[in-house]
Design brief:
There is one protein chain. With 393 residues, the protein is an alpha+beta fold. The chain has one domain: FAD/NAD(P)-binding domain. It has a seven-stranded mixed sheet. Strands 8-2-1-12-21-20 form a six-stranded mixed sheet, covered by helices on one side. The two termini are 23 Å apart.
């Protein structure tokens, strides 16, 4: 039997909490360090894909997540001026198989945190990690913690431990959470509206927040990364007028936004570490790779990274285990990074010809066999074996 190790996890996010549960189940000692006074989520809604849901089930968080979240059967987008469909992806047209799971980050955090709390995992809140050397982490109060057999960086895109320098993407989005209103939009569908590629509006059903029985929606509005200040200065009335002119069905959603602070600006980057580890330190999730959320894979990637790392540590030790982890996730991560780089400019850019290519050629082709099945596999996260040699969760 392998000797139990002591692991430090930096960041109580999706990847960090998942890794904590998996490694604790293997008999290891796990300590989580998070900068907040108490662990908490940041952000609005997201979609957990089927392979990510399988990881949640492995740690006992799946049922709680599905109770709070909302099943997503379809992703549908149309062009505002012509009204034609330009995105149509079903998880399973029969409606009886796999689905996505729309969920608020607070609800996903609730499910993950509850699962971790059933394990013997040590939490260290209000602990801002500034740097790490093999076996030791250094906090902003000048103290050090350790020794650890391995430090796992799950601190996200702003991780102080990650050397990843991602390329800023020209477009981001503002996100907010509102109640699901009286609307003709299906409650099991991610609905989006586009004007060329310089405007994108979306409404994602995300289920309920902990302690709140009202159905929620995550709404988003695409904009260039440097135009948030201009949007705020223009005022909510101007935004509401433009958005509802493009997409009248968006009116009952945007009517609930009465303060600009209800919408949070998210800016995205694109990049992947060639080697997401060094002796005594390994990076998972956004600390290891970043991309546009266009394919809905961000949370999925963090869950799969945590799963692959735990599998690698179960069969090997030290640098060999970390190399196995990197190899297991290499091709799946690379494939989605490439697809994100190709697809994102078609929906978020100033290009005039890419939307024409999208609408007049790529979308019609995507609806011909085997296009629908391939699109389902892409969004489900199953186009390639997500854990490499370890297969599927």
């Amino acid at each position: 039997m392998k000797k139990a190790k002591h692991f430090a996890i930096v960041g109580a996010g999706i990847g960090g909490l998942t890794a904590a549960a998996l490694l604790s189940d293997q008999g290891h000692q796990v300590s989580i360090y998070d900068q907040f006074d108490r662990p908490r989520p940041v952000g609005s809604g997201l979609v957990i894909q089927p392979v990510g849901q399988a990881v949640l089930d492995r740690i006992g968080a799946g049922d709680r997540a599905r109770t709070l979240g909302n099943p997503i059967h379809r992703m549908l987008g149309f062009e505002a001026d012509a009204g034609r469909k330009v995105l149509d992806v079903w998880y399973d047209r029969s409606g009886h198989g796999q689905t996505g799971l729309g969920i608020h980050r607070a609800s996903l955090f609730d499910a993950l945190f509850a699962a971790v709390r059933t394990r013997d995992v040590q939490f260290h809140p209000a602990s801002r990690v500034m740097r790490a050397v093999p076996g030791t982490i250094h906090l902003d109060d000048g103290t050090t913690q350790g020794p650890f057999d391995l430090i796992i960086d799950g601190a996200g895109a702003t991780s102080p431990l990650s050397p990843l320098q991602s390329r800023p993407l020209p477009y981001g989005a503002i996100w907010g959470t509102v109640d699901w209103p009286q609307t003709s939009l299906p409650l099991t569908q991610l609905s989006q509206c586009y004007r060329r590629a310089d405007r994108m509006i979306g409404a994602l059903p995300i289920g309920k927040l902990p302690g709140d029985d009202r159905q929620k929606a995550a709404i988003f509005w695409s904009m260039p990364r440097d135009q948030h200040d201009d949007w705020q200065k223009a005022g909510l009335a101007a935004w509401a007028a433009e958005a509802t002119a493009l997409w009248p069905d968006f009116a009952p959603f945007i009517a609930q936004i009465t303060d600009a602070d209800q919408m949070t600006m998210a800016r995205y980057g694109h990049g992947t570490m060639r080697q997401p580890w060094s002796p005594g330190l390994v990076h998972i999730g956004d600390a290891a790779h970043r991309a546009s959320p266009q394919l809905g894979q961000g949370a999925n990637m963090a869950l799969l990274d945590a799963m692959a790392l735990s599998q690698a540590l179960a069969v090997a030790e030290g640098d060999q285990a970390l190399a196995l982890y990197a190899k297991a996730r290499r091709w799946h991560t690379l494939a989605y990074q490439v697809m994100s780089a190709v697809f994102t400019p078609q929906y978020q850019s100033d290009s005039r010809w890419l939307p024409v290519l999208r609408d007049r050629l790529l979308f019609p082709l995507s609806q011909l066999p085997p296009g629908p099945r391939l699109l389902s596999a892409i969004v489900s996260g199953t186009m390639l074996r997500p854990l490499g040699r370890f297969g599927y969760p």
